[in-house]
């Protein structure tokens, strides 16, 4: 079964410039703009904003 393009796989990249990324899915209907989540960055050792990269 093919994956639904309504929920694409996205990469969240750290805004601290460490290069650390998370991979997740998002619902395009609910979040059409770029997503920003506050998650843990193990390189800097604290929670920072992660922004969707395209």
TrEMBL record:
Any single biological process term in GO: translation
Superkingdom of origin: Bacteria
Gene Ontology cellular-component annotations: cytosolic large ribosomal subunit
Leader sequence residues: none
GO molecular function: structural constituent of ribosome
Pfam family, one: Ribosomal_L33
Keywords: Ribonucleoprotein, Ribosomal protein
Protein family according to the UniProt entry: Belongs to the bacterial ribosomal protein bL33 family.
PANTHER family with a match to the protein in the record: 54S RIBOSOMAL PROTEIN L39, MITOCHONDRIAL, LARGE RIBOSOMAL SUBUNIT PROTEIN BL33M
Name the record gives this protein: Large ribosomal subunit protein bL33
Naturally occurring in which organism (per UniProt): Streptomyces tabacisoli
Gene name as annotated: rpmG
